[in-house]
Amino acid sequence: MKVAIIGAGVSGLCCAYILEKLGVQCDIYERKHTIGSLYSFGELLLQIVHRPHKDPLKFMESQFRISIIPLTKVKKIIIKSPKNITVIKGENLGYIVQRGQEQESVENQLAKKINAKINFNINADYKELAKSYDYVVVATGNSMIAKQLTEVENIVSSRIKGGIALGDFEPHTVYLWLNTMYARSGFGYLVPLSQNKASIILVATYTQKEEIENMWHTFLHQEKLNYEMIETFETELDISITDRHQIDNIYLIGNAGGFLDPFLGFGLLNAVESAVYSAESIKHGEDYEKKVKKITDKVDKLVDFRKMMDSIKNEDYDRIVKVIGNPIVKRVMYKTNLDVIKYLHFLVKITNRTQ
């Protein structure tokens, strides 16, 4: 049995790792000259988003034997709307992981675990590979190939501007800003990478390329983020859901399979899960669609909430942040293992009634 993997990001590398453990040969094709993204940034793995798993990294290790070393734990989350602020504290609210080209990045951690050959600077044709390999796994990070194979529904389009800032940061504290002035129904966030370095990112929904620079500077000015930026990047992100995830001998995983979280746009855990399920399905002849249903069910819960967020106003953000700051709500959300995602609609409706 021989497998081709298109894409050397998190999902593609995870798939290769599991296939090798199962004794299946694979080749990886990457259109760039390196693994992962060309820019560095911090990503959050928040415990509240991944329930019922109390610890997403421990879940990956216990369920899939995939060990990822984070930069640090999240112990404080500061959420700001235009008029309100709430602070959440806890010993383990989640993790900060490095993404991109740094040695400690998730991509580099995974690459060190595999023996598969990575063929760089090759824009692989999945149709041709499907003729010469038993299976092809698409892990390209976008829905371009999926759109040629099945029905794809675009949920949200965003333009992202970010950078690495130098300053004095609390290593365990992350910031989240909600303001339609510069993010529309998106958000801004700050993730410390060390005591003197942080990743600052603006995710602005439904934004044109010519708009993002002005929105970025408005964000930095409005939130008084007067740091020295040593590098910046700009990219676009379309979050979609796909009707099918296996078409003949072709498997769609990660963002290529529509497994990205449509609420915050994070997708590390879903990328890992879909990669593992594809490898297991290939090796054991299992039903891939059935295995990934647990992921699509989570994504579907957030699709309706994302559509509701697209019509939100700043006064709505103010009410939501105020409600989240209520001691009773805090206790229920962060001191229990309640699946908060299931009740996001209810939270928004309650805040709207209080206007």
Automatic annotation (TrEMBL):
Domain of life: Bacteria
One Pfam family per UniProt: NAD_binding_8
InterPro entries, per database record: FAD/NAD-bd_sf (IPR036188), Geranylgeranyl_reductase (IPR050407)
Name used for this protein in its record: Pyridine nucleotide-disulfide oxidoreductase
Lineage: Bacteria, Bacillati, Bacillota, Clostridia, Thermoanaerobacterales
